[in-house]
Amino acid sequence: MTPAAALASAFALILSADADQVQAAAAPITASTVWSRPATAGLPTGVAYLTLIDHAPTPDRLMGGSSPKAGRVSLHYSVMKAGVMSMLAVDGGLELPPGRAVTLAPGGYHLMLGGLKGGLRVGETYPLTLRFAHARPVTVKVQVRAGPDPMAGMKMP
Fold first, then answer.
1. Is residue 101 within 8 Å of 109, Cβ to Cβ?
2. In whole angstroms, what is the distance from residue 109 CA to residue 68 CA?
3. Which one of 80, 118, 123, 127 counts the least CB within 10 Å of its CB?
4. Where are the domains of the chain?
5. Would you say residue 3 has pLDDT above 80?
């Protein structure tokens, strides 16, 4: 092999490795079982739940999102203490380990829709764009469905 051919081969190998790294870094995060509880028009907040899988070889973080149905979308965690439910904002995002499902569900992590616009009716869908620390934003369709009353058996302060 001539020196020029060896150099060209090495250069192609470097470019190929860089392309693989770029593709891995941009690997999509997928969402499934995306749903929301109904909320009466006039209520200030709503909530969305889903399951996420990070297909990249390195961890990412769910940071929050946006939706035309809300003025803001932020990550929260529900905590029950002495029969009183509190919603705590999650600073710094929620870790998404590579290849593992992370589920946001009632009684745990969820996306809080603040400044809710027009309520959420059973059967309707709305777009929600998820924002991550590293991956590109992902837009999902949220299905509003009935579920168990989240306030049943709780004492409110």
1. no
2. 21
3. 123
4. 28-144
5. no
Which has more confidence, 114 or 86?
114
50 neighbors 30 (Cβ within 8 angstroms): no
Contact (CB, 8 A) for 38 and 45: no
Query: Which tokens go with 18?
Result: 């860089």
Query: Residue 44 belongs to what H/E stretch?
Result: none
Contacts of 126 (CB under 8 A, 6+ apart): 36, 67, 68, 69, 120, 141, 142, 144
CA gyration radius, the chain: 21
The pLDDT-based confidence of 148 (bands split at 50, 70, 90) is low
| CA dist list (Å): 118 to 7, 111, 144 | 63, 18, 13
Backbone phi, psi, residue 73, to 5°: -130, 120
The superfamily in CATH containing domain 28-144 is PCu(A)C copper chaperone (2.60.40.1890)
Rounded mean pLDDT of 95-102? 97
